[in-house]
Description:
With 134 residues, the chain is an alpha+beta fold. It has one domain (4-99): Gcn5-related N-acetyltransferase (GNAT) (Aminopeptidase, 3-Layer(aba) Sandwich), CATH 3.40.630.30. It is 25% helix and 31% strand. It is built from 4 helices and 7 strands. It has helices spanning 15-23, 33-41, 84-94, 112-116, and strands at residues 4-7, 44-50, 53-62, 67-75, 103-107, 121-122, 128-132. Strands 1-2-3-4-5-7-6 form a 7-stranded mixed β-sheet, with helices on both faces. Strand 2 and strand 3 form a beta hairpin. The radius of gyration is 14 Å and the shape is globular.
Amino acid sequence: xxxxxxxxxxxxxxxxxxxxxxxxxxxxxxxxxxxxxxxxxxxxxxxxxxxxxxxxxxxxxxxxxxxxxxxxxxxxxxxxxxxxxxxxxxxxxxxxxxxxxxxxxxxxxxxxxxxxxxxxxxxxxxxxxxxxxx
Length: 134
């Protein structure tokens, strides 16, 4: 299996493929390319690549001081199960610009076990998850 490369370079993100992948998800079906363009432009985005081809994406909405909201974590369907999502999340948690951010949150309907492995805890609504950096 090829090695997974992580990049924060927005110029490397395949916008069309990423937008389409998110529109195929349960959480992004109502979004347009215009919404994704604005969202990506106002977030810290990360992409995963294998053999130069993008295979995943994630982003964080943040103030870079107190709060970060992890969202749009997605791995292309034919590449799932290889730990790519974990690498994307770890890259964001390890990003030097986010090192001082103490409060993290996200929402998921089906990936709780992925996030609990990083220390996120499920809130009472069953979908929101929180992480407090120690």
